[in-house]
Amino acid sequence: MTKLADLKAKLMEDPAFKAEYPAADAEYALIEALVGARTRAKLSQAELARRIGTTQSAVARLEGGHVSPSLATLRKYAAATGATLQIDLVTR
After folding, report:
1. CB 77 within 8 A of CB 37
2. DSSP conformational letter for 86
3. How far apart are the C-alpha atoms of 57 and 25, rounded to whole Å?
4. Dihedral angle over CA of 63, 69, 75, 78, nearest 10
5. Cα 20–chain centre separation
6. Residue 2's pLDDT band (boundaries 50, 70, 90)?
7. Distance CA 38, CA 47 (A)
8. pTM of the model
9. Greater pLDDT, 64 or 19
10. What number of other Cβ atoms are within 10 A of residue 59's Cβ?
11. pLDDT tens-digit map of 30-84
């Protein structure tokens, strides 16, 4: 398991967190996908930032869920990590 997965498992033990998690699930899934893509590409936040023309702190905020990224940013992030951006709307 990754460190991020360990943190998620620990947080899910808290009933209040677990109750709120479904509402934030899409955001957490995006964060997990971003960090996973960077990790698979074996890039540090600093190297990724250099590739997409931003700062390491901006990448940290993005991966921390502190900002809502634009499609352009997500495309750059995907390209820099050798991934493809895919967005999907699913009927409830």
Report:
1. yes
2. -
3. 24
4. 10
5. 18
6. low
7. 10
8. 0.74
9. 64
10. 25
11. 999 999 999 999 999 999 999 999 999 999 999 999 899 999 999 999 999 999 9
Structure tokens at 2: 């990754």
Structure tokens at 10: 């620990």
79, two tokens: 């390209």
Residue scoring higher pLDDT (69 or 24): 69
Q: CB under 8 Å to 69, separation ≥6 — which residues?
A: 62, 77
Token pair 């540090």: residue:
44
Q: Where are the alpha helices (DSSP H) in the chain?
A: 3-11, 15-40, 45-52, 56-63, 71-81
CB 83 within 8 A of CB 37: yes
Tokens of 76: 């750059």
pLDDT of residue 61: 96
Length of the chain: 92
User: Which residues have C-beta within 8 Å of that of residue 1, sequence separation ≥ 6?
Assistant: 9
Tokens of 75: 């495309």
Could you tell me the two tokens for 85? 């951006």
